[in-house]
Amino acid sequence: MTLIQTLRPEALAAPESGIVAVVNYGRLREGLIPLWAGEGDLPTPSFITDAASKALAGGETFYTWQRGIPDLRQALARYYERHFAKTFAEEQFIVTGSGMHAIQLALDALAGPGDEVIYLSPAWPNFDAAAAIAGAVPVPVTLDHSGNGWSCDVEKIAAAVTPRTKALFINTPSNPTGWTADHETLRAILDLARAKGLWIIADEIYSLFHYGHGRAPSFLDIAVAEDRILFVNSFSKNWAMTGWRVGWIKTHPSLQQVFENLIQYSNSGVAQFMQRGAVAALDEGDAFVAEQVERARQARDLVCGILGETGKARFTVPQGAFYLFFTVDSISDSRAAAFEIVDKANVGLAPGTAFGPGGEAFLRLCFHRRLDQLEDAANRLARWMKTV
Q1: What UniProt keywords are attached to this protein's entry (predicted)?
Q2: Quick one: three-class SS letters along the chain?
Q3: pTM of structure
């Protein structure tokens, strides 16, 4: 028996990221414009890095509160009061080592071997894989796509519920589609969860990247304190902190000790000096976030305009997040197309095959970058489309 054969089947079955496969293929290409990953092109702003540097220089390098320093949990409460008009105690927040860590902790708390967790697809692939590694069964329910855009049929979710279903994973605004649930849809999902005794894992990381009026609709707008909802989030997108790996969970205060225990046995907490940077992000970063959202809006409109003029790209203008999920006439294998685009257009895109059922024919373009670079990339893609 080889070494690898002695590992857990769930570990062996963990898939290679379909996004990373393309990244690894093209990352060293000279002049390539990378639009494959879910991040912007700006480094973390100085008001955040300065706060972390000051704390680091000041010796904040010891073990700290595993649930997060009080200052950061209080800053999270202030953030929600400003943006969601809701008052929460600091005991309702748990600081995690990234949004991915928050999702893993939610799964640790809710689902084990044989349990089912329903998610909406196409979807960010990490949730599906993380659930399977935990031994749970991820069950995709596809969003509907038509000339009117993406939509969620809650009856399809209800039909997927079985006695083994423990939770629903709802990401809105959605990565990769940009679909954004309205309050009517959120209420229908919440009603279903209440009726069936299910938990909701609410991934609202892109709430502020919404191109309507203000932030996107949230379960917080309609939920009550005792609803079974875990909100998972991250500092990555809003504040250009993808490399920091800091996130949070908003939960009922009665569950705080449980999640602190789970943190103890996973990463044992986030470095205190990094948390100081996160405090600065929350308390001083609203203007920065607003600038980024407006920048993304302009970028979205630019890319949609150029690709739309080709007559070969098919897409719905996204309502939220910062991705364009599109198809190209005559292209059916998006994975092969992504590699070809690296070779022939020198642009990096993520293949829709990486995002599960319903995404196979699509390509994902992250437009959260400066306009001149996006214009160049979109024109390269337009020229490539003329050849296929």
Answers
A1: Aminotransferase, Transferase
A2: CCCHHHCCHHHHCCCCCHHHHHHHHHCCCCCCEECCCCCCCCCCCHHHHHHHHHHHHCCCCCCCCCCCCHHHHHHHHHHHHHHHCCCCCHHHEEEECCHHHHHHHHHHHHCCCCCEEEEEECCCHHHHHHHHHCCCEEEEEECEEECCEEECCHHHHHHHCCCCEEEEEEECCCCCCCCCCCHHHHHHHHHHHHHHCCEEEEECCCCCCECCCCCCCCHHHCCCCCCCEEEEEECCCCCCCHHHCCEEEECCHHHHHHHHHHHHCCCCCCCHHHHHHHHHHHHHCHHHHHHHHHHHHHHHHHHHHHHHCCCCEEECCCCECCEEEEEECCCCCHHHHHHHHHHHHCEECEEHHHHCCCCCCCEEEECCCCHHHHHHHHHHHHHHHCCC
A3: 0.96
